[in-house]
Amino acid sequence: MVAYTILSGLLFGLYFSLMAIGLNLIFGVMRMVNLAHGDFIMLGAFAAFFAYTLWNMNPLVTMVFVFFLFILLGGALYYLVVPRLLRAQDPEMLSLILFFGLSQVIQALAVIAFGNNQRSIDYTALGSGTVFLFGQGFEESWVVVAAVSLLAIILVSIYLYATKLGVATRAVMNHREEAASAGISVHRVSAYAMGIGLALAAIAGVFSPFMIGSIDPTMGTDLTTTSFAIIIIGSLGNPIGTVVGGMIYGLSLMYMESYQPSWSSLVPYLLLFIILLLKPSGLLGRRMRNA
Amino acid sequence: MRNGYKAGFVLLVTLLLFAVGTHLYSNEDMWFQAMVYLALAQGINILYGFTGYLPFGYVGFFGTGAYAASLYMTDFHLNPIVAILGGGVTALIVGLLLSPLLRLSGAYFSIGSLAASQMIYYTVSNPALQAVTNGPYGMNLEAFYNPAESYTVMLVILAFTLAATAYLRYSRMGLALRATREDAVSAAMAGIPVVRMRITAWLLSATIAGLVGGAFAWHISVFYPNTVFDLNVSIFAIVFTLFGGGASLLGPIIGMVVLYGLYNWIGISAPQYFQLIYGVLIVMLVLFLPNGIMSLFRKKGYDVP
């Protein structure tokens, strides 16, 4: 029981890291609070659902299409709203409200387009067998999703630490003005970050029917708060710290579901609240934000 | 002081409208809900408009007040009015316990308050606490049901809320709060007790939500945890305030009249279209009119009460 709880916590932890990492990338680069994050996850989930039911498409294939589609979408969204927002008096607060409005728009459109019903994908779409890890049996789909999540996180790290654009991205994260004066095109870097951030959210959405359960147009709100809990645990603005947050969240969620199931929905909020009060900069945060 | 009269006029007209409203248009529930949302919007206004802290989890206080008042009525057999006051006091205590949230800035505070309200919700609605809160099965106050009296009590709460906002709009304290919102460090150097001011506004705002929650529970008499902890309650109140413009008495009133009118017109039959409209509205407001409709009049040099 203990080994199973820990291992499934780690598998889900990898998935939750993937779910939250895009939110952190966007916050880190442009200090924008994307309250519509969960709704992009929902859109990814519906993409997977329709691709599977209409064309019998494997979610792993859908993932590739969704990734590029949402990069374009994110870039467009960036140029549409962010430069204007950055000129305002308090961009961080206004971005919170703006993306909240966007979240309402996406949810409303999704209800109009998809209806209010719960949907689910046949869980065997990602493999129906049982995988044994350290003597414990897990659903194959969990292991596949965890492996893909790990791969995606490694690719994000390679992007941030080993490509020219990624190094520029980290420069913008550390100091916007200095990066601009060093000749980095802040807008281009930010547009890519927005695109990649939304694309990662949508990919997480593609796999959500296998990890979270049935999907519906209003599922985004809870996922947004969960993602926030994860990135704040790991520290805001540090995408790699998200992995720590995801693991802690996955482990505590699995622990609660095994031993105190009726209290398990309290976990993300409780963790978020404790971390915010004890160490608002997150477990890996170095600088204190003005509190 | 001429401005003070203007605020008094707005206050009286609003209260009068709600006092005689049910004779003009007999849908009492609509009038009652309008009062609930207006009082909550002013509660948000007191916090967000004057201090810049936007509490997404404001509904937590509303639900706390509703549950506390109901439990005082059913378990302690208190008079409903005393129970509602108790609901306000309970929300005040919860606000006091949550006041460390004010150490957080901007977005962190909003998300932290959201987490706090969800924690209260999941605790109250937890099946493990069924003996105390009746868990997910809600509360039943039918033994105390009295629509006429609860309407009057709500009107009194609204009057208190509007008066509190009008006071902040024209008093030195409101001015100090707005100075704190613009630049906390300079305000502190000018001798304003920043932390104490903020906590006062936060507790006032929490108490208002608790009182409103209590009156709402009494009026509706049967409710479930997801009725009184519905995030949409926060959202409505926030949008009404943002639409009209914060830090004024009139802004949230205008926001409530326009948007709640819109809601009654199309929102009830087709909620998703209403959600779409107010989503688009929020985006447009942030991009083009971040200080609300009232800022248009302010720009023309008209002093909005």
Characterise this structure.
- The complex is a heterodimer of chains A (291) and B (305).
- Chain A has 291 residues and is an all-alpha fold.
- The model of chain A is unreliable at 287-291 (pLDDT under 50).
- In chain A, strand 1 (130-133) and strand 2 (136-139) form a beta hairpin.
- Chain A has helices at 2-30, 37-55, 59-86, 91-114, 140-162, 164-174, 176-181, 186-211, 220-234, 241-259, 267-278, and strands at 130-133, 136-139.
- Helices cover 73% and strands 3% of the residues of chain A.
- Chain B has a single domain, classed as ABC transporter involved in vitamin B12 uptake, BtuC.
- In chain B, 76% of the residues lie in helices and 1% in strands.
- Chain B has 15 helices and 2 strands.
- Chain B has helices at 2-24, 28-51, 59-74, 80-98, 106-124, 130-133, 147-170, 172-182, 184-189, 194-220, 225-228, 231-244, 250-267, 271-288, 294-299; strands at residues 139-140, 222-223.
- In chain B, helix 12 (231-244) packs across helix 13.
- The N and C termini of chain B lie close together (12 Å).
- Chain B: This is Amino acid ABC transporter.
- Chain B: GO terms for molecular function: branched-chain amino acid transmembrane transporter activity.
